[in-house]
Every structure is written in structure tokens, then in C-alpha cells.
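Researcher: First entry.
Model:
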Amino acid sequence: MPLEFELCPGRKIGGENPCFVIAEIGQNHQGDLEIAKKMIRMAKDSGADCAKFQKSALEYKFNKKALERPYNSPHSWGKTYGDHKRHLEFSHDQFRELQKYAKEIGIYFTASGMDEMAVEFLHELEVPFFKVGSGDTNNFPYLKKMAQKGRPMVISSGMQSLDTMRRVYEMVKPLNPNFCFLQCTSTYPLLPEDVNLRVIKEFQSTFPDIPIGYSGHETGIAITLAAVAMGAKVVERHVTLDKTWKGNDHQASLEPNELAELVSSIRLIEKAMGSSVKRLLPCELDCHKKLGKSVVANVKIPAGTVLTLSMLTVKVAEPRGFPPEEIYDLEGKTVKREIEEDESVTEEAIENYNTRTKC
């Protein structure tokens, strides 16, 4: 069984625990605090476990020329990339206000720390866990400092190789055993042929002592549900209030009704996964009683006859006789009373027969 650990207070992941659903608000709030609160409420009402944002200290994440780069995209909120990012970046006080609101309505709150200073702030904010975005998964100094803080970690794997993920595992594991990997492909929206859900199984095999999850950027919910059926213990999906809003992520995000359907469908899948023990279930008894078949006489069989297979067949019969799987065991047995053609073959009609399976 994969390692399980407490990702948030009172909420474990891994093992047989329910899949943990992260509603990634990111920067789909358009830089508006009230919209951000509406999105937290939407995540809560849809049944998600956690509302997640992104936090950056821009001068630590970008160099000066990157911030001064002209940004003429239709999704731009400013003339330069720095202006654009500043519009979307909440202050420390605004983050505290969002965290307070999430606590009031009863949903976990965290963010991806997009640089080391952002991680320091989130640590001070006492978020339940750190999320490592794919762009920082190979940022080893950043990962080391984060792991040393001791908070659980959720690490996406977009743009990375299996070799890199092995190195991440080897670095993080001795410092902080409470982390998981998410299979992820970093493009928006994500085409089905680039999802590669089989990586989930590869991760499960390569890293058997940590939970494995899925971060999806595709449209719709079917692929994420398939990831859960393959054993994803954490899923993350971008969310929005309106896919037509300005911003690169909205098109690959889930609107409220889709997020609600995703969560309810995940819970349905978890219920359907059930047990690995294959047996006749109580719910099947009515069908078995009505349609379950028995061994019956194919011809009239006199008392003292030694049975051959040609004398027997299988039908739905009254009363119930030997189950079909015992027909070969009846061959060579002696009949101690006459059995009419089409009559059920029952235990009392066979000499010295010890049934291995009761009907």
C-alpha cells in the first residue's frame, strides 16, 4: 500500500483515503479580491478539498529584463510582462484575507510559491502544504529549502523527465518524507494524446512509497476521472467562473458545474472501486436465485447407474441442484435413487458425495 500521510490537518492522502481534490484558482481571479472569494466559495460548494492560488515575489521570480518585456497578448493586463503580473498579484494582506475567508467557510487554503521568497511568506502564513509548480520541480536549491521547512509537499512533474523526478525524490525524501508527485503535462489546453496517463503507473512502480496524483490541463472531466480510476490520490484542476474571461488558463479550466460534476464523479468511482475480493455478493443473491443454473438429468437415470457426462446437462432449475462447476465431479458417481429426465440432480440422490461447494 502506498505511503499515507496527513496533507492537511485531519485529512490524509494515499492508501485507502479519498482522493484529495485541489481547485486551482491560480490567477484566474483577474486580480480582483472579491472574484477570488467567489471562487473559493465555488470550490467549497462544488465539494473540492482545497482552494489553491499562486504567490510570487516578482523580483525574485523574474529578472529585470523579463519584467520589462513588452506584453502585447490579448490576455495582457499591462504593457509589459511585469505590469501584467503585478495586476494579478495579491499582496500579503490580501492573501491573509483570502486565507481567513477560506477558514470561515471551511475549505483548506494554500498556494504555489513561485519563488523562494513566496515560499517564505506561505510558511509564515502556515499553509497546510506547499505546492510545487512544474516550473520549479527541477529548481533543486528551491526544493531543498522548501523540504527543510517540514510542511507536506505536492510536486507537479510537467516538463520533467523520469530521471529528473528520480533526482527530486532522492533529494526530498531524506529531508521530508511527506510528499507526493503529480503526473502533469504543461500546456493549456492539453490535448488527450499528450496526457500520458500511463505515467501514473510508472510513477507508482518507481516510487511505491509515496502517493501519486494527477494535475490536468485538459478540457472536460473524463481524463481526470480515468486518472482517479488508475489510482491518483490527489487531483488538481484549474477552475474559473467563466471560460471566456481574459487569461491564458481559463479555457483549460473547469466552470462551477464541471467542478461539481468532477468531485461527485470521483466519489462515485471511489465507491465503485470497492474490494479486490471476488465473491458472490449479497446484492447478487436475488439474481442468483432467479437465474443461477444447476446440474439436471439429460435422460432418465435409474437407481444404481454410474453417471457419465452425457447423462447430465445444465439449466435454470427448481429445485436447485449441484452448481454447474461441480458437473465434472459427478462423473463416475453412483445414483442411489431414480432421477427423472429434466430433474435437478441433488446431493441426496448421489451415493457418498461430499460437496465442496454448497448450492
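Researcher: Second entry.
Model:
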Amino acid sequence: LRFSEFYGCLSPSVGLALEELLVTAQKQDCLTIGIYESAKLLNVDPDNVVLCVLAADDEEDVALKIHFTLLQSFCCDSDITILRVSGVQRLKQLLVAVDANRNQEEHRDLHCILVTVSEMETLQEVGTYCQESRRLDQWVPELVLQER
């Protein structure tokens, strides 16, 4: 039994909390978007990263799986909370809408997003969800973001 099945009623609120967290973090310039950009930040300053969001709708992409494996390993070693999400289109809606003034090319790779804030209530809700998932042996918690 997966955590998301057991606590199904929590998933929608956690999804909303994650969305709010990402939008707020982006407004505060506390978001790093993209696999390569994230890897650079993790190499230089892993102590300030509080959440790693790995997003993919296509589980068939071998290169993406390799990147995710390496990022997950690094995050586990650095005690960074990891959350896998499906709903890349929803992430695009959220993050491009918030940051319409920036270059749209920046938002093409939404597969990895790092959050570097620590004082947000929504971060605590997402973190609690991830901790509970790990307690139930789901080492990389998963969440589905719904398009609107």
C-alpha cells in the first residue's frame, strides 16, 4: 500500500502546498530550474537546498532516469528532501505565469527544481508528506499535480 493511497485525502492539499511553495520561492528568487543548473548549485552550495523536485511524465526516457538517479543519490547523501511529481504541464503553467518577464527558454527543462528557502509554512507541509512517505518505505515520495 502506497502512502498516497493510504493518505489519499492529503495529496490534494500537499499538491496545492507544493504549487504555492514553488510560486512563492520563484518570486523570492529561491528557485533553481533545470537539471544542469541544479547540478551546478548542488555542487557549489548543497547546504542551502531544502527541497529537490524531480518532475517527469514520461518514464521511458533513459537519460532522464540516469539524471534522476544521480540527483537522488546526491540529495540523499546531503540530507535534501526529494519529491517526484508528475504534471510537468502544470509546473509550466505555474512557473511561466509567475515569471512571464524572463526568457521563456529558461523554462524548457522543468525536470529538476531546487528550492533554497527555509521559512515557509508550505515547505513544512511538503516536508511532512515526504517524511511520512519515507516512513512507509516510499523512499522517493510521489505526487501528481493536476492541470487546471
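Model: Note on the second entry: The chain is about 50% helix and 15% strand.
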